[in-house]
Amino acid sequence: MAQKVLITGGLGFIGLELARTLVQRGMAVRLLDNLSPQIHGLNSQPELGSLLEESLVEVVRGDVCQRRDWVSALRDVKSVVHLAAETGTGQSMYRIADYTSTNVLGIALLLDVLANDRHGVTKLVLASSRSVYGEGAYHCAHCGVVYPPMRSSVQLQAGHWEPLCPSCSAKVSPMATPEAAQTNPASVYAATKLAQEDLLRIAANALGIPFLIFRLQNVYGDGQSLHNPYTGILSIFSNRIRQGKKIVLFEDGQESRDFVHVSDVAEAIALGVTSDGGDGLTMNVGSGAQVSVETVARSLRRQFKDSRTTLVISGQYRVGDIRHNYADISAIGEHLGFAPRIPLEDGIARFVRWVKTQPIVNNGSEDGLDRANRELIERGLMKA
């Protein structure tokens, strides 16, 4: 009998890509998902393609906040990959109870079941987030490696976007952030992801269950939700381009992230499931490259062959956003032999080809992004 892996959030784009990767390795997968309308749309089903034709795939609708759903989903499972989470940084700042319930209570219930019920689980994998670092690592010419705190409202209101050295207030340069860096969450979402890590680390060690924690960078790719206006800038920008609407870049557009293709993420997680080389470790999963948001927007316009959409440098900013972060990926290379394979330009080209096969989302005078931004502005969480 094939080893069975439970993937929570299994009908999301990472979950489905991981399922395909594991099935190709001869493993059985059970996909647990609540089919959240914010991610999947109000009346749509996720694109399963030929995946459900596989005898090794089972789909279960359930909620990680319900203990009974965990008990049912864990039946005959050897490994658990926990992807299910609320993921919008800005939205997390006012839906605090929802994010805490799903992200923290969800994993707490999993661990409670494992601690109190009979089970066959021998591996736990958590998808955490680069957001736990906050600003991450920077280099100061005077002080060396430093970890700036969250930027102050005074600094942001003045349009001084770049963090400063916390010791001498000099200018600093972003550098690849290793797993040993200080954690300093700047949003409720980030705080819940760090709480997940702590709960898993403590409980799994006590229960004697091998575990891995993957801190994912900005994941993008085919199948990414085009309905969720709170997360996924490639999806957000693509929707704007297809509607001929302007793309509004926060701050000066030079904030940067580490963009990693979903197929690379699936490969990294699959390596963690099938190998014991990373057991007990926390590892970054990314491309290891720093790319500005403006660069991504221009690349999307190129791939869409778009000449209508204008890029607007708005000077707006959101409370809880960081300026820069990209990953040091040497640890996952050393312990699991992982190396990213999809260059950003190739990945964006693949993403655009897929987007063109999808219906245009929120085609109206006020689309999902407009509404999301209005909600943030009304709550004082987004400023011009």
What keywords describe this structure?
about 375 residues, Rossmann fold, 2 domains, seven-stranded parallel beta sheet, globular, three-stranded antiparallel beta sheet, 18 strands, 13 helices, alpha/beta
In terms of topology, how is this protein built?
Elements: E1 4-8, H1 13-24, E2 28-33, H2 37-40, E3 57-61, H3 67-73, E4 79-82, H4 89-92, H5 96-116, E5 123-129, E6 138-140, E7 144-146, H6 153-157, E8 172-174, H7 188-207, E9 211-216, E10 218-220, H8 233-242, E11 247-249, E12 256-257, E13 259-261, H9 262-274, E14 282-285, E15 291-292, H10 293-304, E16 311-313, E17 317-318, H11 330-336, H12 344-355, H13 368-378, E18 382-383
Parallel strand pairs: 1-2, 1-4, 2-3, 4-5, 5-9, 9-14, 10-13, 11-16
Antiparallel strand pairs: 6-7, 6-8, 12-15, 17-18
Structure, explained:
The chain has helices at residues 13-24, 37-40, 67-73, 89-92, 96-116, 153-157, 188-207, 233-242, 262-274, 293-304, 330-336, 344-355, 368-378, and strands at residues 4-8, 28-33, 57-61, 79-82, 123-129, 138-140, 144-146, 172-174, 211-216, 218-220, 247-249, 256-257, 259-261, 282-285, 291-292, 311-313, 317-318, 382-383. With 384 residues, the chain is an alpha/beta fold. The protein has two domains: 4-137 and 176-383, NAD(P)-binding Rossmann-like Domain (Rossmann fold, 3-Layer(aba) Sandwich), CATH 3.40.50; 138-175, no CATH class. The strands form six sheets. The chain has a seven-stranded parallel beta sheet, with helices on both faces. Strands 7-6-8 form a three-stranded antiparallel beta sheet, with no helix packed on it.
